Automatic annotation (TrEMBL):
It comes from Lactuca saligna. This is L-aspartate oxidase. One of its GO terms (cellular component) is chloroplast. Involved in the biosynthesis of pyridine alkaloid natural products, leading mainly to the production of anabasine, anatabine, nicotine and nornicotine, effective deterrents against herbivores with antiparasitic and pesticide properties (neurotoxins); nornicotine serves as the precursor in the synthesis of the carcinogen compound N'-nitrosonornicotine (NNN). Catalyzes the oxidation of L-aspartate to iminoaspartate. Gene3D superfamilies: FAD/NAD(P)-binding domain, Fumarate reductase/succinate dehydrogenase flavoprotein-like, C-terminal domain, Succinate dehydrogenase/fumarate reductase flavoprotein, catalytic domain. One of its GO terms (biological process) is NAD+ biosynthetic process.
Amino acid sequence: MFVPLCQALVVASAIIKMATSIASGSAHLQFRETRCWRQTSFSPLVSQRCSNKFPWSDGLSNNLKIKKSHHHHQIPETQRLFQTVVTSCMKNESTKYFDFAVIGSGVAGLRYALEVAKHGSVAVITKAEPHESNTNYAQGGVSAVLCPSDSVESHMQDTIVAGAYLCDEETVRVVCTEGPERIRELIAMGASFDHGEDGNLHLAREGGHSHHRIVHAADMTGREIERALLKAIENDPNISVFKHHFAIDLLTSQDGLDMICHGVDTINTETQKVVRFISKVTLLASGGAGHIYPSTTNPPVATGDGIAMAHRAQAVISNMEFVQFHPTALADEGLPIPPTKSRDNSFLITEAVRGDGGILYNLDMERFMPMYDERAELAPRDVVARSIDDQLKKRNDKYVLLDISHRSRDQILSHFPNIAAECLKYGLDITRHPIPVVPAAHYMCGGVKAGLQGETNVLGLYVAGEVACTGLHGANRLASNSLLEALVFAQRAVNPSIQHMKESYTDHQTVSQWWDPPVVPMQLGSTILTKILKRTKQVRNELQSIMWAYVGIVRSTTWLKTAERRIGELELEWEAYLFQQGWEPTMVGLEACEMRNLFCCAKLVVSSALTRHESRGLHYTIDFPHVDEESRLPTIIFPCSMNTTWSSRQLHKQQIC
Ligand SMILES: Cc1cc2nc3c(=O)[nH]c(=O)nc-3n(C[C@H](O)[C@H](O)[C@H](O)COP(=O)(O)OP(=O)(O)OC[C@H]3O[C@@H](n4cnc5c(N)ncnc54)[C@H](O)[C@@H]3O)c2cc1C
Ligand SMILES: *[C@@H]1O[C@H](CO)[C@@H](O)[C@H](O)[C@H]1NC(C)=O
Ligand SMILES: *[C@@H]1O[C@H](CO)[C@@H](O)[C@H](O)[C@H]1NC(C)=O
Ligand SMILES: *[C@@H]1O[C@H](CO)[C@@H](O)[C@H](O)[C@H]1NC(C)=O
């Protein structure tokens, strides 16, 4: 059994290498739109962006190399000019200076912060309470090769198969190899995971994994990791946490063909004050974008802000069509006593329930998974989600049932205490009755294109975690590989970041004055602001419905084109409404900024999905129902390939004051 599997892996990797070279040689294949940024009169830093020839686009799908540019040492003439123009606008602005700015306090951001703090000052910027993150909700665990009978090759192969052969083999190798060490470090930092009777770590098994390799803390693994890391952060004198600071846009300038990141503008959502962070290095660790869909397992903070900010900052974005829908989120309407208030995020029923023997039935108690896949309930998530989607559509049902009640009560309660308690709140005893479930948006495989050190094409900007597209997941994420990826890349970005910090020469005091600050729209008055909020909420719901209806689990070219058109219209209409009400392009507010980002991410998903003329992994379209070997390339979105709207431009580069 083992030998042929290894051969399959070698074949696959050979093909992946080939695909990689095709991708870099014909990058324009993936282009959709070639409109330029609107050229604003004051902004010499944003020069012609539409040349397809970026110095870093060569070998893009391999390793993005950080280019060491000697130009850093001079402030170009144009910037100096610009600076004098805007200095006069800088009133009352609060600016903070750090060596490292970390956007996001999930596993990726915190893990990185703890490491770089040994070498300088760190700001951890986070939009809500520090623990509020996808990390905190992770149930299943972290995958790593820790069992003696397991191997890195086996973990790699499972990852590549789940990723439908679109993974970057080098990335996969790095992550699977470095995983075990990252787990040991987490334990050394105080995270406590479940142990078996033999005293070793208890390793669970999940769908798509051919070995037991999931390290977990009951069904609240993420919460335990988040707790341990936050505790360590609290005790670190070099780290300052800025909670309720919403990152609006990255501060970037252009030097020749290089984009350089100098920090980020934020708004303190409690005091409504704008705070500018100037940093030598910025790590974007802002997590996912689940809220582009109406039903998602992600907490409310996951509005794709990081992907949108990076896109506006001219970073390359990749693989956005691969949105993972978790097959089994709790279907509230199927509960004996449905919740009175609809939730911000759907409650997840972890894959481990299926791993532990959970069986899926339709409402007639027919077990349906074996009809779709020989692996039945243990088939990869995309297969399970599509099968459920098919059952729901065929039968016109609202949910299906996941039953674990054949297992012993003790076992269920010890493995899934959190799920059991949540269901019991609504009158359901999962040790006796099946759980109503539906698919919900869960994980964004695509994101900001990163090299093997978490570097991006923007100098000084690194990415780690769900916001990044490192090539690990390919067309579909293997269960429990995302916490692992976040840990590994947060660590890999450390050394190059420290290097960059040490070499960084910029007069930070001066840099802080290059752009006019965002404005809090107090002057509009509460009546108008309330109207704007209400309209924005409606627009958000409308965008989410469009995404669910036309860009969901099963897609078609016609639906995607409909989505593209309707999203474009909705965005223009929303922006026009704001400006009619007296809103100005430099104005900021939490809801408006999130809306900008949701639009941006939704458009990135739609345009990526339209580019892929095959069905692979999570992207399934009825017009191209099969895998197409020629299309086995990552989707790349270059800057300025999207249409020009207010939402698609950086806030501080909108207009002169
Ligand atoms: C319900 C659920 C269960 C999961 N189970 C598992 C599992 O078992 N195993 C696994 O490997 N993965 C799992 N995942 C996925 C995994 O949890 C995430 O991919 C991972 O935690 C991402 O970590 P992160 O650090 O990249 O981002 P997050 O943990 O999402 O952190 C992002 C941070 O950025 C902040 N932020 C976002 N935007 C801004 C902004 N504009 N300004 C300031 N701050 C901002 C957020 O507030 C947050 O602090 C699960 C996800 C969910 C939702
Ligand atoms: C700065 O802000 C403070 C309080 O927020 C205010 O009292 C003061 O007038 C402001 N100054 C300027 C120059 O705007
Ligand atoms: C804090 O950062 C400084 C460098 O700025 C470093 O010398 C010091 O060791 C760091 N302190 C800790 C506790 O990591
Ligand atoms: C792009 O924007 C212009 C105006 O800003 C609009 O007329 C056009 O329809 C848009 N195109 C798309 C594809 O959204």
